[in-house]
Design brief:
Protein name: Cytochrome c homolog
Oligomer: single chain
CATH topology: Cytochrome Bc1 Complex, Chain D, domain 2
Structural class: mainly alpha
CATH class: Mainly Alpha
Membrane topology: Single-pass type II membrane protein
CATH superfamily: Cytochrome c-like domain
CATH architecture: Orthogonal Bundle
Function: May be involved in electron transfer from bc1 complex to aa3.
Number of strands: 0
Bound molecules: heme C
Keywords: Electron transport, Heme, Iron, Membrane, Metal-binding, Signal-anchor, Transmembrane, Transport
Main location: membrane
Number of domains: 1
Distance between the termini: 7 Å
Length: 118
């Protein structure tokens, strides 16, 4: 994970985020759309927005205290419905490792103090 993230490019990731922007806003205080706003998502607890109605599936997954760290985001975004069976995020996933890493590098910038890289 460390090597993958060290080589990731947030600028390219911003482009990949266009696939997400149909359903998610990225800016601080942005509205929830079909999916929750993603400001501060890296290292946030799952189901991080109290004003968004999550699926039972993701809430169940959240109970064992799953956190959206680099590793879990990397796995979730590969195949959301495999990682969280029953999630209402209707998105097939991003299969290219490099693209996913770039995207996560971009997600990391959505914060007042971006968490340190793994
Ligand atoms: C078709 C709409 C849609 C698309 C496209 C989509 N999402 Fe989502 N996303 C959702 C929904 C709906 C949820 C809530 C899932 C649930 O409650 O099961 C969600 C949840 C999430 C979560 C968990 C948020 C939390 O608070 O725990 C993350 C992280 C996430 N999406 C990232 C992404 C990224 C990154 C992309 C782009 C690759 C993306 N999503 C594309 C609809 C979408």
């Amino acid at each position: 994970m460390r090597t993958i993230m060290a080589n990731a490019n947030a600028k390219l990731g911003e482009d990949v985020f266009k696939k997400c922007a149909v359903c998610h806003t990225a800016e601080k205080g942005g509205a929830n759309k079909v999916g929750p706003n993603l400001w501060g998502i890296v290292n946030a607890i799952t189901a991080h927005k109290s004003d968004f109605t999550y699926s039972a599936a993701i809430l169940a997954r959240a109970q064992p205290n799953l956190k959206w760290d680099y590793e879990t985001l990397y796995r979730y975004l590969y195949a959301p419905r495999k990682f969280v069976p029953g999630t209402k995020m209707a998105f097939a996933g991003i299969k290219k490792d490099e693209e996913r890493a770039n995207l996560i590098a971009y997600l990391r910038t959505l914060s007042d103090s971006p968490p340190k890289l793994p």
